[in-house]
Design goal:
- There is one protein chain.
- With about 100 residues, the protein is mostly helical.
- The protein has one domain: SMc04008-like fold (Orthogonal Bundle), CATH 1.10.3340.
- It has six helices and no strands.
- The longest helix has 22 residues.
- The protein is globular.
- The termini are far apart.
- The relative contact order is 0.14.
């Protein structure tokens, strides 16, 4: 497989992941994703912003989040995000200690 084909496949896969997380499964809470997988939608937006910077494209955190969430972050939160339970918060503290990287 050549690099251009690989890049197109990776891009299509990323777009499908975003569709799945934003449209198909908005009920999957970021804290649950962090507790289970060690990343969430905010991580994806941070990685997007970092990759853009590597390519010389400047964007702030809100711009990157709007690309990943498909709408302004505050709008998505108002529509889909629930308050985390005490159990979710406790699990996050444990999971975060295992995760490598920067906080979201």
């Amino acid at each position: 497989m050549d690099d251009a084909t690989r890049t197109r496949i990776e891009a299509a896969t990323f777009r499908r992941l975003l569709t799945h997380l934003m449209q198909d499964r908005p009920d999957a809470q970021n804290i649950d994703m962090m507790n289970l997988a060690g990343f969430c939608r905010n991580c994806l937006s941070r990685w997007y912003q970092e990759a853009a910077a590597d390519e010389g494209v400047s964007m702030d955190k809100q711009q990157a989040r709007e690309i990943v969430y498909g709408m302004p972050y505050d709008d998505w939160r108002a529509r889909h995000q629930r308050e985390a339970s005490e159990e979710q918060k406790a699990a996050f503290e444990t999971a975060f200690a295992r995760n490598v990287g920067k906080p979201v």
